[in-house]
Amino acid sequence: MVNSRNDDNNKDQDASAVPVSRPKALILRDYREAEIRHGRLAMLAAMFWPLQEMLDQFVLEPDQAGPLLYGPVTLPYFPLLMTFILLNLGYLDIYSQAIKDRDSIGEAFLPGDCFWDPLKILEGAPDSMKRNMQERELFNGRVAMLAVAAFIWEEAITHLPLMDIGDNELLLKPAYEVPYIQEWLDSQFSSFDAPSDQASLEQFMDNSLE
């Protein structure tokens, strides 16, 4: 009788020692949340990286400004702003976990949800609308991650800032500074020769007013 009770206790202990596997849906949800978080960081990096190099070229001396991967000098404004945003994102993680513990949410939450919406954009919205918004955020985050990878590859190969790489000028420079757009504008709006001296210019203006 004692042996049977011991056997039952051993079986209960063995059963409790077996790890309970999480459902695949929750595992995929965790992967999706990690992807959204990385996408948010990539969107910030894809925006701040070219802005930092533009600011460096505008403020610093030509021999000081350079690509972020190899530049000897960089201004601290955007790195400090990025650090501030990262600290706030870390606080949002702590805040969202506190909300989950307070409301006993457990696993019933959407991936990437921080439970903080100061502009009330999604207040009262159905879960389907929230999922659509997160899918758009996920898509933009994936594009941003590819963009950051492309930035690293381009600067590692060329040792040039992003704006000075030929294929990037259409995206990162004003249109009037792109050579072939300048040529097209000149061909469209420079159909007449402007007078060179002051007298000819005054006569040209008088004839135009008549």
* Percent helix: 55-70%
Q: What's the alpha carbon Rg, rounded to whole Å?
A: 30 Å
Continuous helix count:
7
- Main beta sheet: none
Please give the oligomerization state of what you see: single chain
Give the overall shape, derived from the CA principal axes: elongated
Distance between the termini: 122 Å
DSSP E strands, number: 0
Structural class: mainly alpha
Task: Tell me the strand percentage band.
Answer: under 5%
Report the average pLDDT across residues. Answer: 76
Q: Please mark out the parts with pLDDT under 50 across 5 or more consecutive residues, or reply none.
A: none
* SSE order, one letter for each helix or strand: HHHHHHH
Folded structure, characterized:
With 210 residues, the chain is mainly alpha-helical. Helices cover 66% and strands 0% of the residues. Helix 2 (24-59) runs antiparallel to helix 3 (77-103) and helix 2 packs across helix 4. The protein is elongated and about 85 Å long. The mean pLDDT is 76.
